[in-house]
Design a protein that fits this description.
The complex is a heterodimer of chains A (524) and B (365). With 524 residues, chain A is of the alpha/beta class. Helix content of chain A is 31%, strand content 23%. Chain A starts with 9 loop residues before the first strand and ends in a 22-residue tail after the last helix. In chain B, helix 1 packs antiparallel against helix 13 (323-345), helix 3 (57-82) crosses helix 8 and helix 5 (115-142) runs antiparallel to helix 6 (146-166). The longest helix of chain B is centred in the middle third of the chain and has 28 residues, at 115-142. The chains are: A alpha/beta (524), B mainly alpha (365). The A-B interface holds A 20-21, 72, 74, 307-309, 331-336, 342, 344, 346, 349-356, 360, 363-365, 367, 372, 375-377, 403, 406 and B 6-10, 214, 218-221, 223, 226-227, 230-231, 233-234, 236-241, 347, 361, 364-365. Chain A: Keywords: ATP-binding, Nucleotide-binding, Sugar transport, Transport.
């Protein structure tokens, strides 16, 4: 614990970073004592990543001072940071899938540390000491996401670690895995290691961190003790006074079945991809069904089969049906004609073309709404539609001519969602609708989804964010290794239970065609 | 580095227009320097290269005669390149168009009706499209890289043409010269005016210009092509058929190149000869990019390219400048144009502060 006499382990004073046209960090002060777990909270674009890169030596601050154990330092590069005992676990892992755990760690540590074989005992020792079971000789591609993260963390712990920076580490974990990670982190902190924990999930910040620094728009908007603040207070610090941050929506039970997925199995030709087996699912009009799951458990495959990017042979066309009409063999545009709308996980490069204007991106999926006449694009109508989306969904942009890539994540997501909603879909499939979106925009997106539900549309939401699914979905299930758990009414389900489903602990789906009547999952 | 480039984050509108002007100035300056070093009066040389060829109507009509095949090929390439289909095979498609058009014309030597011309142009256009179709088939069926296949098909096309002009299509009364008989008048593109060689290909090119402009700027098909080129995943996500679009783009590309080829043999040349094209199909690649894949830009760029061809010939004849020098000049112009395009997306910045930084770095270590 910090004492007034000893200097903090790391102290940043008035750190600023100017990028062309953007002040990413504006006079940021931050200090971390030995053994302290400090949260760095903020929305996307608040300047968290830039600040981390400055600490880790990836980039240099434009001005300001960085002190390490009281001494002024200039962090030249990540190698220097590692030399000082700073370790960093990135959100996207940098591991070679075809190499073993030990080989990956040896690669990162350089030749001086020894061969992979020599490192193995040390890897075992470290992973046992911190309760992170890891077999050094296993190939990385055979590891789960949680295990891969352990490799990254163990890699940092192999050296004499003084400060560990974790960038949204729980976004890829089940609640249980996240709890295990917290045990490890607390043990590390007890040994005197400082931890900088970057997240936007308020619940876990409160559970883990003793102190928090909140960034907004490149500035520190406040320091606080998370345990003493409510979610709303923290959220206000992150986004300012946004309306409708805290809302709960009434649960409903839906009407007639709209989307039906019947015993859908699909073999993935990619050896590292996930195959689907016997997915059975029904989404009714006027309800939201949420599907939880850790990334890479078949979500992308299921989404592609629903959107039409992957199609089944004509003989299997009835595996997916919309309002009773088989659609599994149809192209996306044909499915859209029948009333399907789709919000893919990746906004840029999938849901929207980065280099095209918002107008053109409105045309992208809405071209069957009378925007094309005799093969020619009706520019005026396209522009009207784009303007209407921008107005109705409060998209912040100079005008409809702005390129999609110039919008922030939240604004672009509002635009994409608005584009789909204005087509009056019978069924909307949305993947990670608020991933990487700021709290204010997320609330707006949730409200829009609920309004669409109340207007009678069927909605399927696939997300990694359990809180979100519990907030908006009426029934919930989870994907694990390409299998779908039975769906249960959200109101009668606990997060822990869904966590077990995410880990694959559910009974095989009973051959019943009414998921509502399916038995609750039995833990193994 | 004293000079650094910073991304602007978006296209700079003024630079979009200024960059070609800046490039022109730089080309003229460094061209003058080059000619001066070689002992020629720079102003006179530039005059010979760029202004003298356009001194009279004959010069202008020759410019258009040269610009037409380049324009047709480049318009087609623009369609393919918008879809990021790198068709390098316009030259081969052009030669095949010339070959097939000639074969048709030689079949119709005795035909008097205007339909002869229609058949000839049609044969050349279809043959060019078919030649590009081979590339499309290899690409969609076997995922073969279209750059490689289309280049290789260029050589095959050239040798096919040489074979036919030395063999089956050689004029029996031609004293064994490698050329076909002259086409019948009905198969020739009519002249546009009494003087000069400007021919009816002009109308074909204008038609193609309007069609490609509508396709790329106004039509939904053009939008699909653009989306496919920019973002294949997004195109798949909304159900645009990638294979069909690839076929379409390559067929249009090949058809226009074939039309350019048949326009040459049925226009100014009037028979099939081994040298149908001095590399129009390759020049068109540059022209398509110079025109920023925009039909109107391509018109300007193909006129400029034709002018350089003419000016080069003129300089060879009147000033004894070797052809290499004029090619060097062309190369300089292209280099500067592309280099100046960097300014559209990047902002140059002089790092005069580097000395300060160094001092700072020394102070801290």
């Amino acid at each position: 614990m910090p004492t007034p006499t000893s200097p903090p382990r790391l102290q940043l004073t008035a750190i600023s970073k100017q990028y062309p046209g953007c002040l990413a960090n504006d006079r940021i002060d931050l200090s971390i004592a030995p053994g302290e777990i400090r949260a760095l909270l903020g929305e996307n674009g608040a300047g968290k990543s830039t600040l981390m890169k400055i600490i880790y030596g990836v980039t240099q601050p434009s001005s300001g001072e960085l002190r390490w154990h009281g001494e002024v330092m200039k962090m030249r590069d990540p190698a220097m940071a590692r030399g000082l005992g700073i370790g960093m676990v990135f959100q996207h892992f940098s591991l070679f899938e075809t190499l073993t755990v030990a080989e990956n760690i040896a690669l990162a540590m350089g030749t001086a540390a020894g061969t992979p074989k020599q490192l193995e005992p040390q890897i075992r020792e470290v992973s046992q000491r911190y309760g992170m079971a890891l077999e050094p000789s296993r190939l990385v591609h055979s590891l789960s996401i949680g295990e891969r993260q352990r490799v990254e963390i163990v890699r940092c712990l192999m050296q004499d670690i003084k400060l560990l920076i974790l960038d949204e580490p729980t976004s890829v974990l089940t609640p249980q895995e996240a709890d295990e990670l917290f045990v490890t982190l607390r043990r590390l902190a007890a040994e005197g290691c400082s931890i900088l924990f970057i997240s936007h999930k308020l619940g876990e910040v409160r559970a883990l961190c003793q102190s928090a620094t909140v960034l907004r728009g490149g500035r520190v908007s406040g320091h606080c003790v998370p345990a003493e603040c409510s979610d709303l207070e923290l959220a206000r610090l992150m986004v300012g006074d946004a309306e409708g941050l805290e809302s709960s929506y009434p649960k409903v039970s839906g009407g007639l079945p709209r989307l039906r997925v019947d015993d859908l199995s699909w073999h993935n030709p990619d050896p590292f991809g996930c195959s689907l087996s016997q997915i059975r699912l029904e989404v009714r009009s006027g309800e939201i069904v949420g599907i939880a799951g850790v990334a890479g458990n078949g979500q992308d495959e299921l989404l592609a089969l629903l959107s039409g990017e992957t199609r089944l042979a004509r003989g299997e066309q009835a595996r997916v049906s919309l309002d009773g009409a088989p659609i599994a063999h149809l192209y996306p545009d044909a499915r859209r004609t029948l009333g399907l709308a789709f919000v893919p996980a990746e906004r840029l490069g999938h849901g929207a073309v980065p280099d095209l204007s918002l107008s053109d991106n409105a045309l992208l999926t809405a071209f069957q709404q009378g925007l094309v006449s005799r093969g020619l694009v009706q520019r005026g109508k396209v522009r009207e539609l784009a303007d209407e989306i921008i107005r109705r969904f409060a998209v912040k942009t100079p005008n409809a001519n702005a390129a999609a890539r110039s919008l922030s994540g939240g604004n672009l997501q509002k635009f994409i969602l608005g584009r789909e909603i204005l087509q009056n879909p019978k069924l909307l499939v949305a993947a990670h609708p608020t991933w990487g979106v700021d709290v204010g925009a997320a609330a707006a997106i949730h409200r829009a989804l609920i309004a669409l539900r109340d207007a009678g549309a069927a909605i399927l939401v696939i997300s990694e964010d359990l809180d979100e699914l519990f907030q908006i979905s009426d029934r919930i299930g989870a994907l694990c290794s390409g299998k779908l758990s039975p769906l249960a009414a959200t109101a009668h389900t606990e997060a822990v239970e869904v966590g077990r489903w995410m880990a694959g602990e559910f009974a095989p789906v009973a051959p019943s065609h009414s998921p509502a009547a399916a038995p609750a999952a039995a833990p193994l | 580095m004293l000079l650094s480039l910073e991304p602007r984050g978006e296209q700079s509108r003024p630079m979009l227009w200024l960059s070609p002007l800046l490039a022109a100035v730089l080309t003229l300056l460094s061209g003058s320097l080059l000619f001066a070093l070689l002992g020629h009066d720079p102003l006179e040389t530039l005059h010979t290269l760029l202004i003298a060829p356009l001194a009279d109507w004959y010069g202008v009509s020759e410019l258009l005669v040269k610009a037409l095949p380049i324009l047709l090929c480049a318009l087609g390439l623009a369609v393919a390149y918008q879809a990021r289909i790198w068709n390098i095979g316009a030259e081969g498609q052009l030669l095949l168009g010339a070959l097939a058009g000639s074969a048709m014309a030689l079949q119709l030597l005795d035909m008097d009706s205007r339909w002869a011309l229609v058949w000839v142009v049609l044969a050349g256009t279809v043959a060019g499209a078919a030649w590009a179709g081979i590339t499309a088939w290899l690409r969609t069926q076997f995922n073969a890289n279209e750059i490689l296949t289309s280049i290789m098909l260029n050589y095959i096309a050239l040798n096919l043409l040489l074979f036919f002009v030395h063999g089956p299509l050689k004029d029996p009364a031609g004293f064994n010269f490698p050329e076909s008989a002259m086409f019948g008048d009905a198969s020739r593109l009519p002249l546009v005016s009494e003087d000069g060689r400007l021919h009816g290909g002009l109308y074909l090119a204008l038609l193609a210009l309007v069609a490609v402009w509508v396709l790329l700027q106004k039509s939904f098909l053009g939008f699909q092509i653009k989306v496919l080129g920019l973002d294949r995943r997004a195109a798949g996500f909304v159900g645009f058929r990638e294979k069909r679009l690839v076929w379409f783009a390559l067929l249009v590309s090949g058809a226009l190149a074939g039309m350019a080829g048949v326009g040459e043999v049925a226009g100014p040349i009037g028979q099939l000869v081994p040298q149908v094209s001095p590399g129009y199909g390759y020049a068109a690649i540059t022209v398509a990019f110079l025109g920023r894949l925009n039909p109107l830009g391509i018109v300007a760029a193909s006129l400029l390219m034709a002018l350089l061809y003419l000016g080069g010939e003129n300089a060879q004849m009147t000033m004894n400048l070797p052809q290499a020098i004029t090619q060097l000049f062309q190369g300089m112009m292209l280099f500067f144009l592309l280099a100046c395009d960097v300014l559209i997306l990047y902002r140059p910045r002089l790092k005069w502060k580097w000395a300060q930084r160094k001092a700072l770095a020394e102070a801290t270590t």
